[in-house]
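pinging the channel bc i need a second pair of eyes. not urgent but kinda urgent?? the chain im working w is below, pasted from the shared doc
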Amino acid sequence: MALQLAARGHEAWSAELQAGAAGARRQSAADRSLALRLNSNENPLGPSPAARAAIEQAFAHAGRYPMNAAPSADDFRALVAREHRIDVSAIALGAGSGEILESAVLAFTSPARALVSALPTFEAPARTAKQRGVPVRDVLVDAAGKLDLDGMVAAAAGAGLVFICNPNNPTATVHSAGAISDAVARIRRASPDTVILIDEAYHDYVIDSSYASAIPLVRGNANVLVSRTLSKLHGMAGLRLGYVIGQPDTVGRLAAWTMPFNGNVLALAAACASLKDAQQIVRERRRNIEALKFATDLFRGMGFATTESQANFMWVDLQRSAKDFRDACEQQGVLVGRLFAPFDKTHCRISIGTIDEMRRAAGVFRSVLGGIRDPGPGIRN
């Protein structure tokens, strides 16, 4: 329970709670409350000043249900609707995007209607499917760490849900708008009843000019859903707020499985303020770009390949056990990402902190990895 309470978001919960006794045994090696956290893809700065001020003001409404507060859940949905030029009825809320992804599995899959998912990718949908006895059709990422869209299209026939994480977690890669649109069209032709959920948790960090949000695809495709979260760029992982966009009937089927009042009053106030704060988005993107470049140059300078990250984390080909690397870093007070099969013998995900945090971590990484080496075959830049 202590690990669960200490977790700051769905990523931390899924990693640390499931670590169980093994995680508890490591507590003596490094005080996790003081360790440098580069393991959960969190925004190290948290909510913006405007969002924090909104939270303080929202305490006056904490005794109200979210539909009765100011701003209310409806106010937030209306703001999202204006931003994306869609109807409010096309939006449902979730406690982060985690609840949305899991609810989609509950709504659209069954023991006879499989889930199609990449490997590796964010685990919540596959974990939920396996708990319910739903078959999971895993499609291995390609040699560049990208989703194998052709493979996912081929696996989609008769499936209940295809889960596309773009940018993908943990490989940090992204597909272009054209590639996603083409994959959606092919899945719709091959399996018209299959729902396609495109998760854009890291949308705000993408710098690849070929990328664009899949939200416009919703208008012409009844079975397409797009999920977003305030946990990443907006620094609200601990406040738990996300949303899903789709045609009203499809959104309604998913929302029937979500928890009532899943957007709490403080999160709604912070989200409304943060979405309106254009300069905050620019500042956070700039911060991430600087720190990501520093970390990328560091690992490549030591001879280790990384993918072209389009997120607030990186995927490094260490050509050694990710567990050994993780444990050694923790011994020196730096926490890095959990294990991702089948790449746990070679690759590690490292979240991007502030530039000062990455400079602090650099010494640990150099110490653990022992300097320059040939990374050998594997995913390369």
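so The first strand starts at residue 36 and ends at 38. and The two ends are 40 Å apart (CA to CA). — does that match what u expected or am i reading it wrong
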